[in-house]
Design brief:
Blueprint: H1 3-28, H2 31-47, H3 49-54, H4 58-76
Helix pairs in contact: 1-2, 1-4, 2-4
Length: 77
């Protein structure tokens, strides 16, 4: 990852982690699993940093990824 990309991910983490965690925890009612979902979300953001960097609403992009990860959790149950 380039330094600018690293700064972007760090900034997104600081700005959005709490909101994403609260949303995931409300859906799962399991803080550990909610943290895993949010961690997976940021892993996806790092993997697709080119998409996130160009997106007009990176916070919305992250929220959509969390929602998709929650659907995956539900399907796996």
């Amino acid at each position: 990852m380039m330094p600018d990309e690293n700064e972007l991910v760090e900034s997104l983490y600081r700005m959005h982690f709490k909101k994403l965690f609260i949303y995931a925890n409300a859906a799962l009612r399991d803080p550990e699993q909610a943290r895993d979902v949010v961690q997976d979300t940021f892993h996806e953001a790092v993997r697709r940093i080119d998409v996130v960097a160009e997106h007009e609403n990176p916070g919305g992009w992250l929220m959509n990824v969390v929602k998709n990860k929650l659907k995956e959790c539900e399907r796996n149950r």
